[in-house]
Design goal:
The protein is an all-alpha fold. The protein folds into 2 domains: 5-51 and 205-325, no CATH class; 64-194, no CATH class. Helices cover 49% and strands 0% of the residues.
Length: 333
């Protein structure tokens, strides 16, 4: 495969987006980058687990010390949160109903609360993913999703997932359920793998979503019949040599390499970034603009939290001294 200049930009983007993440931790007011596109539009972090919603999932949903951590509870809370994927939806539910727990849940009351939120004009689903309605016969999508969760729990899916040997097997199991396609099944598998419910090698499996496929089409002149997942693994495996060859200083996540899901996400983001920086690369989506603008907030973010099983030493950041401003993007030179 012959790569394009967008593939070089991919590594520059990954490094600068990661620097922005660390700069925001130490400086609430910015500016955090000299890059006008990164300063103007909204992009996810280089590491998926660092994104705001993932951080909330890990800290407030999966690892709350005052919440039970049985398989049923971990699965129920994780899937309920991720189906809507909105912090304000989760917080509205807990404000109305108290701590959400499978042991004493009333799905009808959750449904009624979601009805009221919608009737008041509130959005209850995130726009991050396309969320098809499961086929359970209800008029409203959220009622079908609650019926899906009830069916999963009746079939003892949490315990069945614990018996599976790999992340791919978890993905295949989730894929069998109504309303869960390839991309959502992969996202849910990774989210569940953050928790103590399962513990598989995150580097072992990846699924390319539509945005990543568009990014691959921009990074390479042609991928022929190569499997997109295999290409993402190839990209991930060469990350140290790729940064070194381009003289880019990349601050890792406290020693953790980019994982295939991170490289997949970065393909989505470089696809979006190049709509402005390199509009001559059309990709396969044909999209020409970035919809979401960046709006800075000075509200202090909680200290980052990652799955304890990763054993990251967050207190010992690698992002210090001269490395802080190393390897800036210079896209228009």
């Amino acid at each position: 495969m012959k790569h394009t200049e967008v593939f070089d930009l991919y590594w520059q983007f990954a490094a600068e987006r990661q620097r922005i993440y660390f700069r925001r931790q130490s400086d609430a007011f910015g500016p955090w980058t000299d890059d006008p596109i990164l300063a103007s539009y909204r992009f996810t972090n280089s590491y998926r687990a660092s994104d705001r919603v993932s951080q909330y999932l890990i800290r407030e949903v999966q690892y709350r010390p005052d919440r039970p951590s049985t398989p049923d509870e971990l699965f129920f809370r994780t899937i309920l949160f991720k189906i809507f994927n909105r912090i304000d939806t989760w917080e509205a539910l807990e404000a109305a109903l108290g701590p959400l727990s499978w042991a004493d849940v009333d799905l009808d009351r959750i449904c009624d609360t979601l009805d009221k939120l919608m009737n008041s004009g509130r959005r209850i689903y995130s726009a991050a993913y396309i969320m098809p309605s499961p086929r359970y016969g209800h008029a409203r999508k959220h009622a079908n999703h609650l019926a899906l969760i009830a069916h999963m729990m009746e079939q003892r899916l949490p315990q069945r997932l614990q018996q599976l040997p790999s992340l791919e097997a978890v993905y295949e199991s989730l894929l069998r359920w109504s309303g869960i396609g390839r991309f959502l099944a992969f996202q849910y598998a990774v989210d569940l793998n953050y928790s103590e419910l399962i513990d598989h090698d995150e580097a072992s499996f990846v699924v390319a979503g539509p945005g990543a496929l568009d990014g691959l089409a921009k990074c390479f002149e042609s991928i022929g019949r190569e499997d997109p997942g295999a290409i993402i693994h190839w990209i991930c495996n060469q990350q140290e040599s790729a940064f070194a060859a381009r003289e880019i200083s990349f601050p890792t996540l406290y020693g953790r390499r980019l994982q295939p899901i991170d490289c997949q996400n970065l393909l989505c983001e470089i696809s979006k970034y190049t709509r402005v920086s390199h509009p001559q690369f059309a990709g396969i989506s044909g999209r020409t603009r970035i919809k979401q603008s960046f709006r800075a907030t000075t509200t202090p973010a909680p200290a980052p939290m990652y799955p304890p099983k990763w054993r990251l030493d967050v207190a010992k950041a690698q992002f210090e001294g001269p490395a802080y401003h190393a390897g800036k993007l210079s896209l228009f030179a």
